């Protein structure tokens, strides 16, 4: 998969795990036996006519008002499934990796996730998880870190 090739080329240590099919980031956390606070969930959001990839803990949800305020935006809403498939054509719907830079998207990370030593996320397939140090993730994506999520 594209993400694993990217990580290998960058020389980043990571672990790949196979698990039964999961449909939510919280299910992924349960399958991987890790806290939902350190599982990175990817959510594409429209912000004044452009897309952003928001990356936040599985145990949180995007607060669209906070996100709009952070970008001084008039309109802020979630991308739909058709838009997600168009943005991430090489991954299974719902298994989007948190690397917006690989898809031409600005990446925004919630500050709660940025405090984790390691993060786990979908590797482009609903049966695959990738675990890696957050510091390497941050170095590779150069995300904007904001407080835009709240506990679900």
Q: Can you walk through the features of this model?
A:
The structure is a single chain. The termini are far apart. The strands form three sheets. Strands 5-2-3-6-9 form a five-stranded mixed β-sheet. Strands 1-8-7 form a three-stranded antiparallel β-sheet. Strands 4-10 form a two-stranded antiparallel sheet. The longest helix is centred in the N-terminal third of the chain and has 8 residues. The chain has 152 residues and is an alpha+beta fold. The protein has six helices and ten strands; from the N terminus they run αβαβββαβαβαββαββ.
Layout of helices and strands, plus pairs?
Elements: H1 2-9, E1 15-18, H2 25-32, E2 40-47, E3 50-57, E4 60-62, H3 64-70, E5 76-78, H4 81-87, E6 106-110, H5 111-114, E7 118-122, E8 128-133, H6 134-141, E9 144-146, E10 149-151
Parallel strand pairs: 3-6, 6-9
Antiparallel strand pairs: 1-8, 2-3, 2-5, 4-10, 7-8
What form results from the Cα inertia axes? globular
Largest sheet: 5 strands, mixed
Cα radius of gyration in angstroms: 14 Å
What's the β-strand tally? 10
User: Structural class, judged by helices and strands?
Assistant: alpha+beta
Q: Which residue ranges are poorly predicted, with pLDDT under 50 across at least 5 consecutive positions?
A: none
